[in-house]
Prior knowledge:
The complex is a heterodimer. Chain A is α+β, with helices and mostly antiparallel strands.
Amino acid sequence: MANARLRPCGATCRGTALLTLAFALLAGAHLMAQSPLRVSVLPVIELPGSDNPADMGLDLTNILHRSLVGEVTDSGYQVVALGSSTAAAGALREGVPDSASAAVLSPESLQALQDAGADIALLLFYRLQRTRLTLIIRAVDVPDGVTFAGTVGHALADIGVYNSVRSLYGQIADSVDVRAAMGAAGRQELVDRVVLTSPQTDVRVFIGSQDYVGTVRGEDGIVLPALPFRNGQALLMKKEKPGYYSEIQRVELTAPETRAELSPLVKKTRLAATVTWTTGQAMGAGVGLRYYFTPDNFFTAFDSYFYVQDSFSGDGNPIYHNDMKLSFGTYLLLPYGSRFRFGLGGGAGVISTYFGFRDIAAALDPYIEVIELWLELNYQRVSFFLRPEVKWATGGPSALLPQGVVENGFGPSLSAGMVWKW
Amino acid sequence: MEMVRKFGLLAVSVVLLSGCSFLALSPFPSFLSEAEHSQDLSGKLADGDGDISLKAVRNQNGEYLILVQMPFSGALPRAIIMDSDLNVKAVITDQLVGRVVCVAPDGEFIIGQTVVRTDFTLNITNTPLGSYDAYQNRAISNGTNVYVLYANSSDQLAHDTSTLLMWDPGAGYSIPSIDGSGSPDYYLQTAAADKAAGYGYFVFELYGTLTAVQVPLLSVASLTSPLIASYPAVTVTNVDNGRVSVTREGVVYRDYDDMIRLKDFSGNVVAEQRERGMWNYLETYNVEGTHRYLFDRDKQMVFQAGVWW
Lengths: 422, 309
């Protein structure tokens, strides 16, 4: 989970490299004109579940710390001596259980860092499993107390770990540079924290269309990687969820801490239930079930329409029909989200007729549904349709309908109905 | 849900505004809701098509439907006698079976040149009707005599006396004119005897116009001329070929627009309705106007149904 939140930073940084570079260039002169940024590299933190590096004869915490200090120094920043910030690190360590992302610097820790004159604090976490090393770096803006950059990486626990730390730091170096360049006034223009929530769970979120940000799994949402987003900037976020249509949503960043709810994704329809009412079969109704071979497009349907016939004459009595039909249909041209859609289909069925207790045997009238065309008023989970349909009665041993086009007084049948999709 | 509610209200409004006639629409013939009995005659009729006629008659034992088939194939003519519940009582296959059907004064069934006793056995020896043109002749009985009538070429309702009629040799029958015009082209479409009401009914056709006349049954032998002016008569036009029946309630006819109407002998259209998909059915009503019988030529199914008015 923690990795999932931090890992993409590298990719995101690549995706926003131009943006970051622009910030860096703009800030360059400003940076040079001011005193160097003071960075505190806190003691390296071993995450729970880690093997003991001493078993491998490695002084891993020292190696990692020196590596990171070296990178900071090479970047031209002043490394603040730990001094009192050791206490801050101790306080931090107490608050770090098993997740780097859960580590939050306490107000006391931040105060200690400020007292030491640090502008930025770097936290380096590691977990050693056999020879595999997981490294996490987080950068915290000390005055604001917010994490503004982070990254995660993997390495072998050997001498090459120096290069791994360099590579990892390189992924957040741009963010640190920009942070440094903005200064206190500039930081007001940055968005420190972007939280995306969704009414749906398991929604995968991307910046743009490629850079994976994380997966929304609950109401807490996800925090976007700390990137130098400007207040007022708009982000195009791509949302994905298995069984749903992907969408790109524009998210406006309107405050230093922006919380935005992603609109729900539209489910791909695989099954739908229908209710139908047809002219000439007015005293009854039909129900049906659709299965979509391709979501919201090509489907097969089974329908059963029960209706009563009565001439309302002096000697008339009800008789009962049940029309069962298997059909195939497809939507044409307009996509699933269109307010109006239309399509066509066809199929075959049989109408059974029962005369109650009268001295007349039940009858079966097979037919071919030559064509049905429908116009649909379409909403996300429900739609309403009008559907003229042409049936051809085939006749049969017990058929009551004459062979030919089935008419009901209005010409071919006209159905109105509703579709519930899920 | 608001959308669902509105859609439902619209549908209900349409139904309420349209009333029963809309609700009664169906792909199936409307008579099916009035049908009480059916009988599959496919195993009893001669193969192939043929000239088929239906007539409902009544004797002392009840009402019967007699279906006569004159096969085009050259097979022997046949008659199927069914009671009003369409139970088959007899299938008569004989060269002498013919289209002219009525019930004799003693209750036996006259079917062409054959007679079927009330126990449904064939009494062929009586040969009551001669070998005249059965398309032209209609037979009725007033309970005493049997009259085999036709419209002759002199605008007259003539009585066939050329054949041996065991119940009445035809003596004493006066020949009334139909409308007094002398027109040679009248055709006696149908005739029915209503003993309970005491009337006989004749339907004449002239150039597509049909005239139904109600006459006193007991005085058939001495009808007054001209018939149409002397007795209650009603005229109907635009009648689908031959699709007319006459009952105590009036004349029932079907037009070319699938409208079926009942017009009483005062000339009032008592009832009408549209009945589609009936081109395949032959139909006839009993003279009391309480039943109709329909025969589906394709399926060779016969139905007994109540009346629709």
